[in-house]
């Protein structure tokens, strides 16, 4: 028995209406909190360059969240809302190694968005991106979570770090969307749009820094002190499989092979050498560089970290004392 074509059309219309209802609800909730940002920064030759991007208000007293690269080289700028209200902002703090920055609006209180939790996202879930692409204020696009668990590299003053658990989405993003919110269907901010892949190589896939426990802690630290403290050892390396006997003994198949030790660093002072394989820190297994990165939190600065090291087939313990990674300072005009 064939299905009446009118029934299929009706069902499609119902699905479309449900999709539209979610997107319009998110737009109605979040657009009043989304800000178009304008900045000025001094170029390498001393010239002034104008920049733009997006942000989202996250507290009733005017704190905003954006991408660090949007306010690179600036200490203040202008902000405008979709209702036409314009004011200025000051850069409270930025962290290039997570590509997050906190700004503070001048003047009256502003409506604030609710922060969600990206750890609950699932591939295929509907998300909505809001921002000011190409100067078009208050734009809304929708798509799905294309992938989770991606990583992107961030760099600052010669140091690099992987921003983990980045959200990949096919919601259309363009220059100017950076710093704007990525929302779940409930209107909660689950990410900060940070990069566009393509269109030639990535078909316009977008990436967003997740809002989760780790990034909420970064935001809180930026509000409190204007910077994020991180510990630093001064090693660079990559994942290396362990010999079978050592793997069985240690209960892990991989470690971090040290390929470079920075002169004068805590690692060099402790006697770490290129070719060493780091397999644990304070008893916690180290299987790749991200494991060591997660360990280098601010509370490790000045303390002791005992590294379990394989050198020449022998296992030993090396005591290190991490120092504070040179934090980004808010500089600029």
Characterization of the model:
The chain is of the alpha+beta class and 333 residues long. It folds into 2 domains: 1-228, Beta Barrel (Thrombin, subunit H); 231-324, Pdz3 Domain, CATH 2.30.42.10. It has 5 helices and 21 strands. It has helices at residues 5-30, 213-225, 244-250, 266-270, 289-295, and strands at residues 34-42, 48-57, 63-66, 76-81, 86-95, 100-105, 114-115, 126-131, 139-156, 159-169, 181-183, 188-197, 205-210, 231-232, 235-241, 254-261, 277-281, 284-285, 305-311, 314-320, 323-324. The chain has a 6-stranded antiparallel beta barrel. It has a 6-stranded antiparallel beta barrel with strand order 8-9-10-13-12-11. Strands 15, 16, 17, 18, 19 and 20 form a 6-stranded antiparallel beta sheet that branches. The longest helix is centred in the first third of the chain and has 26 residues, at 5-30. It starts with a helix and ends in a 9-residue tail after the last strand. The model is unreliable at 329-333 (pLDDT under 50).
